[in-house]
Design goal:
single chain, alpha+beta, Glutaredoxin, 3 helices, globular, Thioredoxin-like_sf, SelT/selW/selH selenoprotein, Selenoprotein_Rdx-typ, redox-active center
Length: 96
Amino acid sequence: MDEKPDKKPHVSIHYCTRCNWLLRAAWMAQELLATFGEELGAVTLVPGSGGRFEIHVGPHLIWERKRDGGFPGPKELKQKVRDVIAPERDMGHIDR
């Protein structure tokens, strides 16, 4: 039986509209959905301002642009999401 969507983890990507980071946020959302489509309940883009670029998995802040020194690459992002939602999952070539 499939797990209900509301029980699956939700990812939120907070991005600065003034910095024109919508395309970056959308691309990261696409990468996550392509990799974790069955394991995620939702990926939400949250517009904001002030140079904010943060990625949350549920209550966990896994990336903050200012704290972490820029933006994550797709490999790093997927590993960080995996570490929260399915730490036992082997990501194949991404983990090598």
